[in-house]
Design goal:
Keywords: ATP-binding, Cytoplasm, Fatty acid biosynthesis, Fatty acid metabolism, Ligase, Lipid biosynthesis, Lipid metabolism, Metal-binding, Nucleotide-binding, Transferase, Zinc, Zinc-finger. Helix 5 (about 160-180) links the parallel strand 7 and strand 8 (about 185-195). By secondary structure, the chain is α/β, with parallel strands linked by helices. The chain is built from 21 helices and 19 strands. The protein has helices at about 30-35, 50-55, 85-95, 130-145, 160-180, 195-200, 220-230, 240-245, 260-270, 295-305, 310-320, 360-365, 375-390, 405-410, 415-425, 440-445, 465-475, 480-485, 490-495, 515-535, 540-550, and strands at about 5, 15-20, 25, 65, 100-105, 110-115, 150-155, 185-195, 210, 215-220, 250, 320-325, 335-345, 345-355, 395-400, 430-440, 450-455, 460, 500-505. The N and C termini lie far apart (about 105 Å).
């Protein structure tokens, strides 16, 4: 019996491999059928670039782009042996011209361009040839308007090429920027390890970043950090799981699930609607007379009922092929905001919403639906992605308001909300917002600067909670019912005031009594709005949205701009 370590590709005469994670002996053929993932501990063994292309792409769809390298040695570099000798040895050992393989292929029937790094080749280091190959792959994707998939495995910039290797960081980042400007989807797949100049350039710039379980990503490696600054690091530091928690990657996906996940992303980004039957009648209530007058406090209580459909409930019931994206790419992933891509009634779109939860445990985990700054920044990141790809945005809002804690203030909660208001005002794509439960203050408005603002019949929307208003103005929260009536927080009042554009009726005593019917009502209302908005051009959308919000309070004051030579007196000076 022959045994080999799993970080070396098994060859035909090897019958068994050792798992690099748990050390268990694995039957080689079974291990290969599992795409080199240990069935015992889930350890993902390294793949060669060729193996990776085969694992990701549809059968017989890969066409490798030939890479001819000059073998240049720009610095005349020699350590224990000349750099050209190292290159020739790496080429002989791997059978590759360089540390990246570029190819055309298909994933789920969608054409893609791929650049796949191979750690076996000088640690997957980023040299001039690698940077040139990745840049040219990006340029092919740009010319053909084809999504670009980047698979990274690297120790960083290649030291033997010095400053010219460093320049590849700027060069590849510039290439991805051109794809951003052209509205072409980019996806990064982080494999173990991805460090240094690769991590700090094209690996972390794609629209969606997927990591394999346990993959490490960072600017400086653990040993460098510990030796340089003497800092003690936690065991999970720089792993995919650590990075997901800190908002750097969008998702962790086991190797076997990668093709399906990529297919869903590519499907949404393709912007090709999947024709589905449209509602034959308009279900959205836009006339005040059709709505009964209701006690405002009863509406507040109805909006807060435990068991009302959450954002994830609605997504699960009306959005197909949903791919959730995580993190603000800066510090954290706020669980109170859910965001991702999918299809509603066959229409590719982005969905963003606040998430309260359906159990006591989930409520606590989701911070009771009160977003932190990282949540609003995650929402902004995904809205920018929607604008890049030309996808409409649907926001689902049920929150008492933005989280008011110390950490939120330290992370500039007010700035995060303000930036969302400015961003949404000028998004060049259709935006539909639905208040499904509570619409609390600026925390709700940060997701509700939209072309169409809708409310569920039992929802409420207000500048402050009824209890908060009562405490401030009546000096007691017991006057909350009186405050709710004065604030006119119910859907009928808000439709009359012109703050919302329509009301979505709820089944029975409320949406929580029939989730399927409630979801179908929401689906029909949103489709109705999107059918009106999607044919409009960008300038018409932005102009109408600006006018919509400009009119609030437009007749409440006049600001006189007197001629410069005319003296101006304050009332106290007269």
């Amino acid at each position: 019996m022959t045994v080999v370590q799993s970080d070396r590709p098994p060859t035909a005469h090897h019958d068994w491999v050792l798992c690099g994670g748990c050390g268990q002996m694995l039957y080689r053929k079974r291990f290969e059928l599992a795409v080199q993932v240990c069935p015992a501990c889930g350890f993902h063994a390294p793949l060669t670039a060729t193996e990776r292309l085969g694992a990701l792409c549809d059968a017989d769809s890969v066409r490798v782009l030939e890479l001819a390298v000059t073998g240049s040695d720009p610095l005349g570099f020699t350590d224990t042996r000349p750099y050209p000798q190292r290159l020739r040895a790496a080429q002989a050992n791997t059978g590759s011209a360089e540390a990246v393989v570029c190819a055309r292929g298909e994933i789920g029937g969608f054409a893609v361009v791929l650049a796949v790094m191979d750690f076996r080749f000088l640690g997957g280091s980023l040299g001039t040839a690698v940077g040139e190959a990745i840049t040219r792959a990006a340029e092919i994707a740009l010319a053909e308007r084809t999504p670009l998939i980047l698979v990274t495995a690297s120790g960083g910039a290649r030291m033997q090429e010095g400053i010219l290797a460093l320049m590849q960081m700027a060069k590849t980042s510039q290439a991805l920027g051109q794809l951003d400007e052209a509205g072409i989807l980019t996806v990064g797949l982080i494999t173990d390890p991805t460090f240094g100049g690769v991590a700090a350039s094209f690996a972390t710039l794609p629209d969606a970043i997927i990591a394999e379980p346990g993959a490490r990503l960072g600017f400086a490696g653990r040993r460098v950090i510990e030796q340089t600054i003497g800092q003690s690091l936690p065991p999970e530091f720089q792993t995919a799981e650590f990075l997901l928690e800190h908002g750097v990657v969008d998702m962790i996906t086991p190797r076997a699930e990668l093709p399906a996940t990529l297919t869903r992303l590519l499907s949404a980004a393709a912007r090709r609607p999947d024709p589905q039957p449209r509602p034959t009648s308009r279900t959205l209530v836009t006339e005040v007379a059709r709505l009964p007058e209701r006690d405002a406090w009863e509406c507040v209580r109805a909006a807060r009922r435990f068991g009302r459909p959450t954002t994830l409930d609605y997504i699960g019931l009306v959005v197909d092929d949903f791919v959730e994206l995580h993190g603000d790419r800066a510090s954290a992933d706020c669980p109170a905001i859910v965001a991702g891509l999918g299809r509603l009634a066959g229409i590719p779109l982005v969905v963003i919403g606040t998430q309260k939860g359906r159990s006591t445990t989930e409520l606590a985990k989701r911070n009771f639906g009160m977003p932190n700054p990282s949540g609003y920044r995650k929402a902004a990141r995904v809205m920018r992605l929607a604008a890049k790809l030309g996808l409409p945005v649907l926001t689902l809002i049920d929150t008492a308001g933005a989280y008011p804690g110390i950490e939120a203030e330290e992370q500039a909660q007010a700035v995060a909300i303000a930036e969302n208001l400015r961003l949404m005002a000028s998004l060049p794509i259709p935006v539909v917002a639905v208040i499904t439960g509570e619409g609390g203050s600026g925390g709700a408005l940060a997701l509700a600067v939209a072309d169409r603002v809708l409310m569920s019949a039992n929802a409420v929307y207000s500048v402050i909670s009824a209890e908060g208003c009562a405490s401030i103005l009546w000096k007691t929260p017991a006057e909350a019912p009186r405050a709710a009536a004065a604030l006119r927080v119910d859907a009928r009042s808000l439709l009359e005031l012109g703050v919302i554009d329509g009301v979505i009726e709820e089944p029975g005593a409320g949406a929580e009594t029939d989730l399927l019917a409630a979801a179908e009502q929401l689906r029909s209302a949103v489709v109705e709005c999107l059918d009106d908005l999607l044919p409009q051009d960008q300038m018409s959308l932005i102009t109408a949205r600006h006018a919509r919000f400009r009119r609030f309070g437009a007749d409440s004051a006049v600001l006189a701009d007197l001629p410069a030579e005319q003296p101006r007196f304050l009332e106290r000076d007269v």
